[in-house]
Give the backbone structure.
Amino acid sequence: MALSRREALASMLAGAFLLPGTGCGAAQADPSRTLLPPTASEDFLARCIRCGRCAEVCTAGCIELHPPWAGAEAGSPFIVPRVAGCNTCTMCTQVCPSGALTPIEPEDVLDAVDMGLAYVDEGLCLSFLGRVCGVCHDACPFPGEAIVLGHHAQPQVLGACVGCGRCEERCPQIPAAIRVFRQDPGSPRWKGPA
Amino acid sequence: MNRWLRRALQASVLLLLAGIPALQIWTVGVTTRWAPEELEQRYGPLARPLVELCARTFGDPPELGGLLTGGIWSIGLGGFELADPIALASLLAGLAWPPVALLLGGALVLLLHLAFGRLFCGALCPYGALSRLVSRLRPRFALEGSLPRWLGFVTLGAVVLAPLVGGSLVSLLPYAAVGLAMQGLVFGGWLGAVLVLGGLLLSDLLLWEHGVCRSLCPSGALQSLLGRWRVLRLEPLRKVGCEAHCHLCAESCWLGLDPRAGAPDSECDSCGRCIGVCPSSRLVLRVPVRDLPGRPQ
């Protein structure tokens, strides 16, 4: 028989009390190799409704979804720049229904996107080791604005870098000599200004 | 509802859920001009044949690429948004104010739940369709019995309030899992959704028949809560009696209700199976009119 409103409400409250036991709020052990899609809001995990539409329309194929056992991040999107960087097409921001991503046009990317900042490891970068590379500069969607090449094509990242991660994806060195870090000081990826 | 109408609706929802990821990968595949090997490397084995098939059969993708996205949980139909009210509620529970389009889309579905109760479950829900299929394959040693109905409200409370502990349980919802599994098969990362969907279907197959729909689904619980005020109702006609020992209607009900005992409560999804089997045509689906003033009882 149908439950009374009171019984239904009590059951829902019981569900709330069981929540901690599901582990769905658990922070992931090491989110350090991931970025969030462009224009992610401050309270991204609370705003994201896990519909996966950003991953569907991503023309770079870089947005993946966390599996159901990923604790608090389950179902939410992430980018591993070494696997595939963002090409700043802004499609994901335009389909996001919940406001977790703010809709922008491709021409707004330089101003509006801040997924992270690229750092060059001069001990690994081929151009700093006496060879002339410059692949990161070629991969950058904003060459000359976000990254410039100096002597022997030695890269220098400028403040305009949006953190798309294409340089990290294309870097021929193993491990990558240029890597993108989230600019959130609370994030484990943040290693401080270079 | 006619059996064939119901099946046509269920099939078109399943087709839509499979078609959306196919349309997206076709759009991505054609616009990026990647080598087929790169498509396969980025998305997995299904993406490449799908893009090649679509491109060969239909040519270039229509301008729909960004206009038809999502699934049952949240869907965008050419700039028009529809969303599960549970998605909306969980967003509000996390103290995040939703954009107007999502608010309207969620409110519209909420109104439909209020007007028609659980009609969605039997006619449109993709998991409901799969669950019906699975129930035909139940082996003889499958468990008899059922789960208590209040479990659905426990899961409803957990899903809606999950943002309070900073997480989300959406990946575990049966109807969302169907879309996520199809999306995952095309775009990669299918394992989680397929495991969830497989586990739920397996419990329907070997443990409680339709247990997910009857007792576990939070949306089913919400819809039966809102369905108290539904317009369209199944009713046994008073002037016609039941035949002796006949219980065909109760046998036919996939949600385990018994229309012989009187008009079923809001757990009824108005699917009309019982109407089809009733030998004395005693059951009707109608807008109840007996409470109108001036009408003789």
User: Anything to note?
Assistant: Chain A touches chain B through 55 residues (CB under 8 Å). Helices of chain A lie at 5-22, 44-47, 53-57, 91-95, 109-112, 135-139, 166-170. Residues 116 and 163 of chain A are 4 Å apart (CA to CA).
